[in-house]
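hiii, so i know i said id send this last week but things got crazy w the move. better late than never?? heres the sequnce for the chain we talked about at the cafe, plus the structure i predicted for it. fair warning i was half asleep when i ran it
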Amino acid sequence: MLVATLALAASGCHGGSGTKSPDLRGTPTGEPVPGSHILAVKVDNVGPARPQTGLDKADIVYVEQVESGLSRILAVYSSQVPPVVGPVRSARETDLELLRQFDRPTLAFSGAQSKLLPLIEAAPLNALPPAEAPAAYFRSRDRAAPHNLYLRPERALRDTPGVNAAGYAGLSFGPAPPGGKPTATYTVRYPAARFGFTWSAGRHQWLLAMDGTPSRTASGEQLGAATVILQYVTVRPSSFHDRWGNNSPYTETVGSGAALVLRDGAAYEADWERDTADSGTGFTTPDGEPMPLAPGQIWIVYEAR
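okay and structure toks below
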């Protein structure tokens, strides 16, 4: 079984928009530290890659559209880091702009097309493909390549700051604002992927299903998020293509637009703004007040407007 394989492998290894200062409200106490302590992992998200390992420990999970209308995940860790994360897949141009708000994070990825590699090398991040840290990666025998590459995070970075990475992205936590619309379920559709979020009062989370099937951890528990943000953005063709000639979509995360925030069994209209690539992403209520998020994991799903 994959779970047993991963457990054995693991046991063998010992701010808001316009600001660079982390907003640590609602996060564990501690002084801000350089963003290189934040780990981002590019995670596979097609059927043969599920169930993924370690997603439940991420502070923020970003969902991006990739080639052929499929999706891929960028999981960001800081407050806690699991022993294994994966399956790890290749980086995209979208990741480079998105990650600048974390102030030089470490990016773990399986590789990238040759034309994109110079941009990754020039980006303000610590690029960590297997060639740079072979001891941090292993391949599971329970799955076929390329869906079997996993990361041992403790071999990828020395430590983490113990604060929620949401602070670096300009997000904050607090009680729900007034005006939410009671919502039991919400579905996001990409051309070739589907995400369903169902509110569970018992777990106080939005339980996740992908392509109509409950999404589970490697140990079998259904994935759930305290807050889900549907961020409406421009998704345009990039100058890159995959090996079959399909264009790689580019998701613009700098700018402004509308959003929908799901928390506490309700949906809240919101706006988002990110002035520059070095800025965090600010989410506000229709009255212009900061939009507080529910304490816990955050999923941010980019939807084309």
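btw Residues 1-35 have pLDDT under 50 and may be disordered. thought thatd interest u
miss u guys!!
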